[in-house]
Design a protein that fits this description.
- The chain is of the alpha+beta class.
- The chain has 2 domains: about 35 residues; about 30 residues, no CATH class.
- It contains 1 helix and 4 strands, in the order H-E-E-E-E.
- The strands form 2 sheets. A two-stranded antiparallel sheet has the order 1-2. A two-stranded antiparallel sheet has the order 3-4.
- About 5% of the residues are buried.
- Bound molecules: zinc ion (ZN).
- Zinc ion (ZN) binds next to loops.
């Protein structure tokens, strides 16, 4: 008969779940940092009338706001500094 002490059972019950959690955590962090930016033809625009943010094609000079349907010249949004 195999004799197992209470200490080794408790150690096993703690080490196995912690190891599984650590492996999943490492896998998730590796997956997060391996994401690469995908080149796109879209740029972020802001409507001058209703301040709605939307994406538009880089090639389009004039874009139409999807919310208020106003036609405007495409201006690329700049990121605000200091936030
Ligand atoms: Zn608008």
């Amino acid at each position: 008969m195999i004799s197992v002490s209470l200490t080794s059972i408790l150690a096993y019950l703690m080490i196995v779940p912690l190891t599984v959690i650590m492996i999943l955590w490492l896998y998730d962090s590796e997956k997060k940092y391996s994401r690469k930016a995908v080149p796109t033809r879209k740029v972020m625009c802001e409507c001058e009338i209703c301040l709605f943010h939307f994406t538009a094609d880089k090639a389009d000079k004039y874009v139409r706001c999807p919310r208020c349907k106003s036609l405007m010249e495409r201006k690329v949004m700049r990121r605000r500094k200091g936030n």
